[in-house]
Design brief:
By secondary structure, the protein is α+β, with helices and mostly antiparallel strands. It has 13 helices and 8 strands.
Length: 333
């Protein structure tokens, strides 16, 4: 096999691992306007791809030429919102749901989440926190005028569907998470600021939101205590390992690992996240997070002492936030 054939078959093998052979075959037939036999010859390296065909396939399947052909000398990152000018929340949720569903179909799949903030999957399942964050995201990126947050904010049926799917998919995977004691701080600051600018249409929503956060903290303590989690669609309990590290949490980083699938997401919060399929980068990320885990404290299951200290601080921080919010409500509402 000559160098042209080796590179070409390597490119198509990488595509097949990512999206499956049938999708590569039929997608290439449609994109290039070729019959099945002609596409097979390109997939096997018998017919050379033109430069235009290679670029077209890379763009169509969103599959990096750098990562597939250049042996890690260059690392490509993909940003899902660079594709559309008019991007909405639905695109973000669809992206998360698609990747989680893909991982779910792989055997022996797992997730690792290095959390600068509490993983957003916990927020998605909470009605008032989710509505609050959606309102902020819309205001920051698409909507004009003053920020308005209210209890009757309408959520598209598709968004509600994806919200449910994402929660179930995440809960169905073995997950390792590395937390830090300040991971709730950004949410608290956002709520306080929104009170001071009178962004909430009524006090009722603020009270529900604070209660949502309180219930969330209780939920976190419960799953950490037992080290297991069970989704509504899962027949078996899923292992959950949670560690505490106050030094290495610079970004929200999420690693997907499954058969023939390794993806690293960086800053996995809306809408800044970027992802890479680079084998070298994914391995580097795994090694880095494994080192952080080895230098972290286990707070789930058997980690009783550190868990108690951790939640004492979280509860103290929450009470301070609640008192501050209630005092500000008296001033601004």
């Amino acid at each position: 096999m000559n160098p042209q054939q080796e590179l070409q078959t390597k490119f198509f093998k990488g595509l097949e691992k990512t999206i499956g052979q049938d999708n590569v075959l039929h997608g290439s037939m449609e994109l290039l306007g070729l019959r099945k036999g002609a596409v097979y010859k390109r997939m096997n390296g018998d017919t050379a791809l033109t430069t235009a065909e290679l670029v077209s396939l890379s763009n169509h399947f969103q599959f990096s030429i750098d990562d597939s052909l250049l042996n890690g000398k260059f690392i490509s990152f993909s940003h899902p919102f660079m594709q559309e000018i008019d991007t909405k929340n639905i695109d973000f949720l669809r992206s998360i749901s698609t990747y989680l569903e893909t991982l779910r179909s792989r055997e022996k799949s797992k997730l690792t989440y290095l959390a600068n903030e509490l993983p957003l999957f916990y927020y998605i399942s909470r009605k008032y926190i989710f509505t609050f964050l959606m309102s902020i995201w819309n205001h920051l990126h698409w909507e004009e005028g003053a920020l308005k947050i209210n209890e009757t904010t309408h959520l598209d049926e598709n968004i509600e569907s994806f919200r449910s799917e994402i929660t179930d998919y995440y809960d169905a995977h073995p997950v390792t998470e590395i937390w830090n004691s300040n991971m709730m701080s950004n949410l608290y600051q956002q709520v306080i600021f929104c009170i001071t600018i009178r962004a909430f249409n009524n006090i009722s929503f603020i009270n529900h939101l604070i209660n949502d956060i309180k219930n969330l903290l209780e939920h976190l303590k419960d799953i950490t205590l037992h080290g297991i989690r069970k989704s509504s669609n899962a027949s078996e309990q899923v292992d959950l390992s949670i560690y505490l590290n106050e030094f290495g949490n610079y970004l929200n980083v999420l690693l997907y690992e499954g058969e023939d699938l390794d993806i690293t997401f960086i800053a996995f919060d809306y809408p800044q996240f970027i992802k890479t399929n680079s084998t070298g980068f994914n391995q580097y990320s795994k090694n880095w997070i494994e080192k952080l885990k080895n230098r972290s404290l286990l707070i789930s299951s058997a980690g009783y002492q550190y868990r108690e200290l951790f939640f004492l601080k979280l509860e103290k921080d929450f009470e301070a936030f609640k008192v501050k919010a209630e005092n500000l409500i008296k001033v601004y509402y």
